[in-house]
Specification:
The complex is a heterodimer of chains A (190) and B (365). Chain A is mostly helical and 190 residues long. Chain A has 8 helices and 1 strand, in the order ααααααααβ. Chain B has a 7-stranded mixed β-sheet with strand order 1-4-5-7-8-11-12, with no helix packed on it. In chain B, strands 2-3-6-9-10-13-14 form a 7-stranded antiparallel β-sheet. Classes of the chains: A mainly alpha (190), B alpha+beta (365).
Chain lengths: 190, 365
């Protein structure tokens, strides 16, 4: 274990969070479970990398995602037409398999600005003063007339929201819902 | 194995703990003893570690926001969206898809209406670049900027227009542009295109297609030509649909979440939830979404994208309804699935894929 894997994980795996999240939204019916699935996938990928970093992190990430979804479907024992079909090749779009790339500076900045603007007022103010103005938490507390504990809470909340927006990107909610595999049904036409 | 609800709760709990650690460390006065405690927590479970790494990475990246603070008063927190027109950004903040070149930068710089002292210096610098890039060319009074693009069957192309708008062309599509000082005119001669329109009230954005004008100011919409009709899907803003031949009838206004179908001079408008409207645009990602869609219609979607056409030999099969997500370029997978769940027989011929009814028609389940 160690820092090498941490760095690898941030650069080669987290960089694909947006694509991964879209993939999960598309292929998993219950969107409330997406964050949980994603975490489980990250755990599997990280632990595999401790043993041996995969040659192609992105393909490995998506292969892990597919396996996890397949496991979950099997476990749920849905004996219906719902899970029929292409479980073996859950639809992965080509653009999700592009070679990995860390965001260009400009796009990263745009995402961050967007993420910042979505924070609640006080939280946004605290994050700005801390992260941009480099004021210590203590000084922020006295300046805003709130307790240091409250500043810390805003930082904690802000870090979570920033992470969702930054890694996940802005578009994750737009991906249409889908079931695992494909659904097909008939309507009595005669 | 935990129940699903517990799993989700556990994930949230871990993320909260990771955030508290991050915030506490950030508070300063961090001693070795505390670092050891954090190390122990991280070592306890890989789920802890990945959650922490994820938050930490975003938090570290957030330091980039300093770029935006140049010139801002100490301790002044800029208003939300203060950087919306910042020349630092290649694309509008609301539009993750758009990737732009210099022309967009030109527009963004010129479009600064509210005062933004913090960005003035950088804006001025970039304006020079923008001018060199030809972004100002189309402001000349009589100049009309023309261009045309087309895609092959199954292909797709994102086009950056001179005003900062983008057009995403679908399979087998042709789009022509004629931008003047007064109007941003486009003609969709065939196929389908999705438009993300840069806001400019002084110059309407007009897509001419199949005898209709689809007119927008700053919005997002999709226009598609079929053999005998036209379809417009609006996902943001407001679009005006107007007959080109007969301007007398009142124009149809299409707000976000509308689908207008034009067929032989008749316009039918449906209003649907936005997420449902977005599904009509999934072709941009290379797939298609069906909900109880008649089989013949589903097949048409695939045939738009594939040279090897699927043919429905037995019209009675059209009573079958299809749902799900499918790769547009993989009609084989689609057909295979149809064969598995429907009483359908598939015949692969050199000139196409023929679907006919298999066995007893009552065995559908």
């Amino acid at each position: 274990m160690g820092e090498a894997v941490d760095t690898w994980f941030v650069r080669e795996v987290l960089a694909h969070e947006q694509a991964l999240t879209r993939f999960l939204h598309r292929n998993w019916r219950d969107h409330d479970e997406v964050a949980d699935l994603r975490q489980e996938i990250y755990v599997r990928v990280y632990e595999a990398a401790l043993r041996r970093p995969p040659d192609s992190p992105k393909s490995f990430l998506f292969a892990t995602a597919r396996n996890l979804l397949a496991d979950r479907v099997r476990r749920q024992r849905i004996v219906s037409i719902t899970a029929v079909g292409d479980l073996e090749q859950l639809h992965v779009l080509e653009n999700e398999l592009e070679p990995s790339r860390w965001l260009g500076g400009r796009e990263a900045l745009a995402r961050l600005a967007r993420a910042l603007d979505q924070l609640p007022d006080r939280c946004r103010e605290v994050v700005w003063l801390r992260r941009v103005m480099d004021l210590p938490q203590k000084e922020i507390a006295s300046r805003l007339g709130i307790s240091e504990k409250t500043v810390e809470k805003h930082i904690a909340k802000g870090s979570r929201m920033l992470a969702d927006r930054f890694h996940g990107g802005p578009d994750t909610q737009a991906a249409p819902a889908a079931s695992a595999g494909a659904v097909a049904w008939t309507r009595k036409s005669t | 194995m935990d129940a699903q609800i517990d799993m989700t709760a556990r994930h949230r709990q871990i993320e909260r703990s990771a955030a508290s650690w991050l915030a506490r460390r950030d508070a300063g006065g961090w001693a070795d003893r505390q670092q050891s405690a954090l190390d122990a927590w991280l070592a306890e479970d890989t789920a802890h570690r990945v959650a922490f790494l994820r938050l930490e990475a975003a938090w570290n990246e957030a330091a980039r926001l300093k770029t935006l603070a140049a010139g801002a008063g100490h301790g002044q927190v800029p208003a939300r969206g203060a950087w919306a027109d910042s020349p630092y950004f290649a694309s509008p903040l609301g539009s993750p898809r758009a990737v732009a070149g210099h022309t967009r930068t030109a527009r963004a710089s010129r479009g600064r209406r509210r005062h933004r002292p913090l960005l003035a210096g950088a804006a001025a610098a970039l304006l020079v670049v923008a001018a060199l890039a030809g972004g100002l060319l189309w402001r000349n009074s009589n100049h009309v900027e023309r261009a045309a693009w087309s895609t092959l069957l199954g292909a797709q192309q994102v086009v950056h227009l001179a005003d900062g708008s983008t057009a995403t062309l679908g399979s087998d599509t042709e789009l022509r542009m004629a931008f003047s000082r007064h109007e941003r005119a486009l003609e969709l001669t065939r196929g389908e295109a999705y438009f993300d329109v840069a806001h400019d009230t002084s110059r309407p954005f007009v897509v001419n297609a199949g005898g209709y004008h689809v007119i927008a100011v700053g919005t997002r919409f999709d226009v598609r030509r079929d053999t005998d009709g036209l379809r417009v899907v609006v996902t943001r803003g407001l679009v005006r649909l107007q007959s080109a031949r007969d301007p007398a009838p009142a124009a149809t206004m299409l707000p976000s979440g509308s689908i207008a179908l034009v067929d032989g001079g008749n316009v039918v408008v449906r209003h649907i939830p936005l997420d449902r409207a977005m599904e009509y645009l999934s072709w941009r990602d290379g797939y298609v979404v069906f909900h109880g869609t008649p089989l013949a219609q589903a097949i048409d979607e695939f045939n738009r994208y594939n040279a090897r056409k699927i043919v429905l030999a037995d019209p009675s099969l059209d009573g079958l309804r299809v749902g799900g997500n499918f790769r547009l370029d993989n009609s084989t997978a689609f057909v295979r699935l149809m064969q598995q769940v429907f009483p359908v027989r598939v015949e692969q011929r050199t000139d196409g894929i023929v679907l006919s009814r298999r066995g007893n028609p009552n065995t559908a389940h």
